[in-house]
């Protein structure tokens, strides 16, 4: 066990969902041709004036709620002054002294232990444009300039890489389900910086900042590497400098970008072109009224209708299927069977055809009728696999599809019993193997039943009756 104690803080920037940018009416979008979602405000032309996007403030209020932050009722924006090629105005409009949210937390669970990761503050700011480096030339794409961001800053309360990854996973889940951000790290709509220091006592060590880590997995790797690097330095009598580093995922290590010899002096002052904002009770109430159910609320709700924890997690990890299932709860049916279908045959169809479930003809009524047919034995699981394309692509009823595909399952108890008796009499060795505890024998005997009935018997019914006959 290491003699050093790590202290970790994380800063996350998430792009906010809105039709337009924070201070202009340019489209807030991704994937458009370079420098097409821009106007003179984004380009920093002299004499242009910013106008606040009300939707972004609304999203900020919603973010405060889901992250348990105190909402700042009266706030202003500030100018953060610095010079860099991706910053055409030579200042960034942000919130320094009056962040929209303070004193929040996200609760995580690691190795069965729950912990609250405390949030220092959360503020709204504009993004810079995107740099692309081509050899000795740097190019700028202003499509990202002015895109609304929420920056979420934790207190230095994270103890290890597991906690950091659990925090980011939960944060991403919350913001995604609240429709605040799509949190696609691969597209840059969620970006993460980590501050790491180590110490032998209660005082903080010298921290290094690891910038723009590209995935949650890489956050864990970067933190572990940085802790090890700092331990080796201190054990060798070296002095740790305050640095900015980046994580190279190919080499699996952090790389020096620059040394922080002096503190940054951004010369903050109140943005003179934007008046103070004062949030009313009505504005806050309207913003929060549209919040959907969040993942932990969904977990509780789904547990009550009989879903397993594994089913619940798989469902929550697939937003479109989750939203569909949530609507199904207003119907009376077997929800466990419904989720099994959604996560198996239906998911396979959707993945194969690159569709989401709302692009199909699978109405709630049709899915309920499929479940009922499975429970009565009118359909088998194999039948559903055979019918899945027609179920998803047409409006035909189950009865119409059964006639079209000539499906007629045997549900006559006496007929099935006669078949089972015949199979048992003709396969004495397999029967003895089953009674000796060999599970494969049961599968073989069941296969013989299906063969005798040419697959026309309901498998569950036949399996239950076969086991009952074998155990006599």
Helical content (DSSP H or I, runs of 4+): 25-40%
Rg for CA atoms: 30 Å
Q: How does the major sheet shape up? A: 9 strands, mixed
Strand content: 15-25%
- What do the pLDDT scores average to? 93
The protein's oligomeric status is single chain
Which shape, going by the Cα principal axes? elongated
Q: Could you list the spans in which at least 5 consecutive residues all have pLDDT below 50?
A: none
Return the structural class: alpha+beta
Please report the number of helical segments: 15
Strand arrangement within the widest β-sheet reads 2-6-7-10-1-11-12-13-14
**What distance lies between the first and last C-alpha atoms, to the nearest angstrom?**
58 Å
Number of strands: 16
